[in-house]
Amino acid sequence: MSTVPAEIAGIGSTAQRLRVSPEFDPVKASVRPDEYFVLSRIDGTQTLRELLLATGLPVDRAVSIVTRLRSIGALLLPGETTAPPAGAPPQSVPAVARTLTPVGSGDPPQPAMPVAPVHDLSIPDPTPDELAALSEHVDLDDRGRRRILAMARLCHGRDPHALLGVPSTADARMLKLAYFQLSKEIHPDRYYGKRLGSFAARMSMVFEAASRAYARLTASDKGRAAAQAQASSDLPQTPQEYAAELFDRACQLEVGGEELEAMKLFAAAVRMDPQARYLRRAASCALAADQPRTAVEYAKKAHTLVPNDPSAARLLAIAFRAAGKLTDAEEVLVIAMAIKSENDVLAAELRNDLAEVRRLLSR
Length: 363
What we know:
Order of helices and strands: EEEHHHEHHHHHHHHHHHHH
Strand order of the largest sheet: 1-2
Oligomer: single chain
């Protein structure tokens, strides 16, 4: 099957917008990695047809996955509040579908990857800082805290596979699955507005490091081989790699409460590689260090690079407000609210920020 069908048996029209049942637990249901990947793409905003095309999987395979997810109670049709009980046992999946990559005739099937990337969550020989983090009162469960701490230990290493929690033999699809699963678990936007304590900085650091690791391993068909060769060589760093190292070190200093020292490294990193995420983190650090003017400069540059990102606009407005530039803050917030966003929490924060700025202006 190379084209998306108009209807799918047991589901109906592919023009429908499906949702994930809030009662569904993918771990208890033993959802496989490729099924979890498809499940993570369902957000109720795109049609089933758009979803099937967006997964990057063969259409017949994507249809098979959606059908099985529906049969085990994972998906809700429009108008449903609970998934109907399964009328029959889950469909069996062909052996080839249980592998992580397409296999040709004569190729042995590859073992399926676990639902979550593998990191040592036991945190052996924890430092005092790690012990303190594990006992913090934050909106993260124990597993989430340990995942972030375990990945933070790997951020400064030279093994991108270990950071992503995959074996060195991982193929492109396994890397993609691991990265998407980590994105679901540690992406900072998932916890927007939550109480994270010291984990806020750690989470940004490990997500950015994981993103770099994924990009490094998938940069070309020879990405994995190049990464492995670099890990055992003494080749000089590129400016971008050195900037990334400086950025990671600055994040560590910021997490440790040394904002002024972190600012020096952030400044060096953005001079060498002025990426939006570097600039945004530098702006946040400048605010923490009570340097609002510097925060404004960094936030302005970040906003210029990503003008359609409402969170970058909000950061600029916060910096303007800290610098006493309330009129500028109001203007940026009005523009930010006009940018389309699916993040309801961010939209509410923007409204609250604008109301507070206008209250201050009316004094």
